[in-house]
Design goal:
about 220 residues; mainly alpha; Rhomboid-like fold; three-stranded antiparallel sheet; 9 helices; about 60% helix
């Protein structure tokens, strides 16, 4: 399923969402324009590597990649899919929270997602990059905050794609179950360290759990 847009209107321009997207794009451009050796040095310096974090867990500098890794991506498809999801769901969540609270919420759920990935595979040597944990937090918030929204979705149908409207809670529930299934399979097959499934899972759960605490006061009764 490929989400195209949602049916929930905005009241205000999503300044924070646009800014986060712009920062991710700027970092990605920096990554791909560096010579290969320098690009790899950048990845290993700023990506989150669970085994490195485990070895330096009592040193403050070990926590920096938990944050910086949220603004790095592996390839063009990775950043496009992540930024599209952030744009699709982030603007409405920001609308309810306000820009400043939304940024704090985004970073917090991203950090929780990073810790979940570490707990799932603390000895992994694979560098982890991407905003998907934080974006999963935004999706978890959207799941609870917009129960009547619908997602315009492209669904494969024989030899072509068909546009259908899927209620947002159903779309996001299907997505979440897919992450849980993949996360469980990664444990069973000992493949933790590739895709950060548990970061997605706990990012989503933390977003759903924490979202109301970040709403603007006039929105808390919704």
């Amino acid at each position: 399923m490929l989400p195209i847009k949602d049916t929930e209107p905005n009241e205000k321009f999503p300044v924070a969402t646009i800014t986060i997207i712009a920062l991710n794009i700027m970092v990605f451009i920096k990554q791909v324009t560096l010579p290969y050796n320098e690009a790899m040095e950048m990845v290993y310096k700023y990506a989150f590597i669970p085994s490195r974090f485990l070895g330096g867990i009592f040193h403050i500098e070990s926590y920096i990649p938990l944050f910086t890794s949220m603004f790095m991506h592996g390839d063009l498809i990775h950043i496009i899919s992540n930024m599209w999801s952030l744009w699709l769901f982030g603007d409405n969540v920001e609308d309810r929270m306000g820009s400043f609270r939304f940024v704090l919420f985004y970073i917090l759920t991203g950090l929780i997602a990073g810790f979940a990935h570490f707990i799932a595979g603390p000895t992994s040597n694979i560098p982890t990059v991407g905003a998907s944990g934080a974006i999963a937090g935004v999706m978890g918030a959207y799941f609870l905050m917009f129960p009547h929204s619908k997602i315009v979705t492209l669904v494969p149908f024989i030899l072509f794609y068909r546009r259908i409207l899927i209620p947002a809670p159903i779309f996001l529930f299907i997505w979440f179950i897919g992450q849980v299934r993949s996360g469980i399979m990664s444990v069973g097959y000992g493949t933790i360290g590739g895709v950060a499934w548990w970061a997605h899972i706990f990012g989503f759960l933390s977003g759903a759990f924490l979202c109301r605490k970040f709403l603007r006061k006039k929105q808390r009764g919704i």
